[in-house]
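Hey, resending since the last one bounced:
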Amino acid sequence: MISPHLDDAVLSCGQLINSRPGTVITTILAGFPPGAHGGWSGQTTGLPVAEDANSMRRDEDQRASRALGARTNWIDLPAQEYGPASSPSERLLSIQQSIVTAVATTEICSVFLPLGLTHPDHIIVSDAALLAVLASNVKSYVYMEMPYGQARPGRVRRRLRRIGRQFYIEPLAPFVGDVQKKAEAVNAYSSQIETLQQGFGRHFNRVFTDPERYWRVRPLVES
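The structure tokens again:
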């Protein structure tokens, strides 16, 4: 399971993760710069030092993952909130290489990637993951990020059309699992919930109970 940030996979796929004990959640943008920083993580945790804020968020992610029977794998690449450390093309390549390594070193038969909605970090991780994973032999799927998808369904349709120019996309039946376990896991992200509720309103509340959405993706030209 590929997650852009330290909550996206659980928010979007908690029911599915809970149904597959031992799932590895690889968070790509789990790194941080030295010193104080006033970005998203600092604001939501109340901790101005980036290392402290990130440590709190990793602790939350660990609790959430354990609640679902999953394992965590954190990649030390920084999120966009910490400022561009490289050009967009260099950043895309760095993320792609990290995903290739993560897939190669984890015994998996399938991988789930973010669809790539709205947030620039989500889009670049999705783009990099599609390039990285679809060159491998594992079965590949994309998931709709919550609550972004509920708030902006038009973005979901446009993103699917864009990906469909390069890949076969097969929609799967909406997945419904243990909503109580997902709620327990989502609530572990205590530093994030209030801000997400303020930003997404009723759409955030749908994260807890809405069916999760997935699509199978394959290269247009099979190797």
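The chain has one domain: 2-219.

Sorry for the duplicate.
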